[in-house]
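[agent] plan:
  1. take the single chain provided in the ticket
  2. run structure prediction with default settings
  3. attach structure tokens to the ticket
  4. add a short note for the reviewer (M.T.)
[agent] executing step 1
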Amino acid sequence: MRLGQGYPLTATEHSPMTPPNARLVSPSHARPTLSASSKDSPSDSVQEAAYDATLIARFNGGDESAFVEMMNRYHSKIFGLAQNLLRNAADAEEIAQDTFIRAHRGLATFRGDSSLATWLYRIALNLSRNRYWYFFRRRRQDSVSLERPLSEETEGTFSDLIAADTNSPVQATVTQEFTELISSCMKKLDARHREILTMRNILNLPYDEIARALGINVGTVKSRIARARENLRKLLTELAPEFSEDAGPDDFFIASRVAYGCHAIAYA
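[agent] step 2 finished; step 3 output follows
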């Protein structure tokens, strides 16, 4: 993990954590979320600090909507700071929540020695550092979050690469249809060919064991399996033209990844 790289500290990203019973901010108290332009002029910073002071006064006077507005104004910046340090969105969101929980408890005794923004950033920074070193001692820096993007160019995550425990409905249908088709064609095969394909493809017996069981040499086993498979292919073609010799795999196999988190189907 390298500090100082990762999530950009932009104020335009917005993910407010509004308490379930919080009241909406009234139009008379409404104020735009902090923007990057607030850094351009010292007077803007002074105005923002002054407005924060009014929010603190309103909150300490019993107006909970003032705290909701604080969260809306600073959540994205606090989240970005934590994300920059921890490189983990879930941890960064927890840091943002813990920051506002501590701020909610401490605003009554907030002396105003620094601006509200500086105070919140200091809380978030300390919480982030504590979590970083907590996990560093447990060597979590050697692991990768499953929710981490595969690259900057895609929204896919590492969790998308993990196969699901069950097939999708499409895959289950294809498997069932293919199994029924093979079973129907196997019944039409010569007894010797059906026998040797069963031993090889269903029982997964090695060539030498099949040879001993049938009393023939390994070369004969391989040639008989090849002829049996060719006859099976011809029977499949009669029932399903997409299995003809000139057909490509895409004509009768479903895509290897029809959806994230699903097993691919392959027929040997």
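[agent] step 4 note for reviewer: The two ends are 43 Å apart (CA to CA).
[agent] ticket updated
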